[in-house]
Amino acid sequence: MSKSFIKIIVCVILCIPVCVNAQDYINYEKYQSLDSARIAKKKATRERAKKFDRGVENSVFVPKGQWLWGGALSYNELSSDAYDVLVLTGIDGSYYNFKVSPYFAYFFSDNLCLGARFSYKRSMIKLNNADLDLGENLDINLSIQDFYSLSHVYTGAIIFRNYIGLGKSKRFGLFNEIQLGVGGGQGKMRSGKGEDINGTYQNIFELSLGVVPGITAFIANNVAVQASVNVLGLKYKKIEQTRNQIYHGELESSGINFKIDLFSINIGVAFYL
Predict the structure, then answer these.
(1) DSSP three-state, residue 137
(2) What is the distance between the alpha carbons of residues 253 and 233, in angstroms, rounded to a whole number?
(3) Which candidate, 249, 210, 270, places its Cα nearest to that of 62?
(4) Has residue 39 got a pLDDT over 70?
(5) Does any domain span residue 59?
(6) Domain shared by 31 and 122, yes or no
(7) Each residue of 90-100: b (16+ CB within 10 Å) or e?
(8) Residue 217 in contact with residue 250, Cβ under 8 Å?
(9) pLDDT on residue 42
């Protein structure tokens, strides 16, 4: 083996670490540039998020220290005489539903108040006659006669409200109310007549948690009209009943709803003092 060949081998062996180090340096520089690009991208994203403004102003709509007094009233009535709808024929009866709900609250901070709400609800159904006709082919006919139902429920609730003014307006605003309530009441039902009469007495217990958004408009400096609707609610209800003063039964129900209940729209007047 010649000396020149040996020198060449020695040079190659000595150059290998240098090449490896050079490659490591290149890779390091590459990763450093990638990390710098990622950091710059994240920084630019944070800067854009800081500069973005939705234009929401935290203005004072109702100042701290005021009292809120108000109430809502609703009444529905229906009567029919020999009325037909779908498979129900000869409907003869009447119905009404009455509800009054006063409340008060104290603003412990700007736009935030805590208080209580009380409500009384009374409903009556009187059905003299109603026939269920499923057609001649099925030959099934059912009839309800001399049915009467009356119930009334008292409810008390703790309420928490927060207000948001519409822009810079001091007259129009939105609010969201959270209600935690408990209630109870009685009901009675009667069907038939004469010797075939049947009577049922009920004890009612209710527990609820609800979210009620609404809108308010001031018609004077301290007087406002408002409208609200139930959107989200958790409810538990238990009914204990006694039929003909002998037979006993119970019914328990619970559920959660996330929907706009158009039948729960409340319109009322509020005073801010």
Answers:
(1) coil
(2) 14
(3) 270
(4) no
(5) no
(6) no
(7) bbbbeeeeebe
(8) no
(9) 65
Question: Residue 226 belongs to a domain with what CATH number?
Answer: 2.40.160
Phi then psi for 35, rounded to 5 degrees?
-65, -40
3-class DSSP assignment, residue 122: strand
Question: Which two structure tokens, joined as six digits, stand for 97?
Answer: 């539903």
Task: Please compute Rg for the chain using Cα positions.
Answer: 36
Number of folded domains in the chain? 2
**Do 126 and 194 reside in the same domain of the chain?**
yes
pLDDT digits (tens, 9 = 90+) for 166-190: 877 788 888 888 999 999 998 888 8
pLDDT in tens, 62-119: 888 899 998 887 777 777 776 666 666 667 778 888 888 889 999 999 889 999 999 9
> What is the domain extent for residue 46?
1-52
62 inside domain: no
- Cβ burial, residue 80 (10 Å; 0-12/13-18/19+): middle
- How far, in Å, CA of 62 to CA of 65, rounded? 9
Residue 94 domain flag: yes
CB 133 within 8 A of CB 87: yes
Query: Are 128 and 79 contacting, i.e. CB atoms less than 8 angstroms apart?
Result: no
Q: Are 79 and 94 in contact (CB under 8 A)?
A: yes
My answer on whether 172 and 245 are in the same domain is yes
- pLDDT tens column, 111-134: 899 999 999 998 888 877 767 766
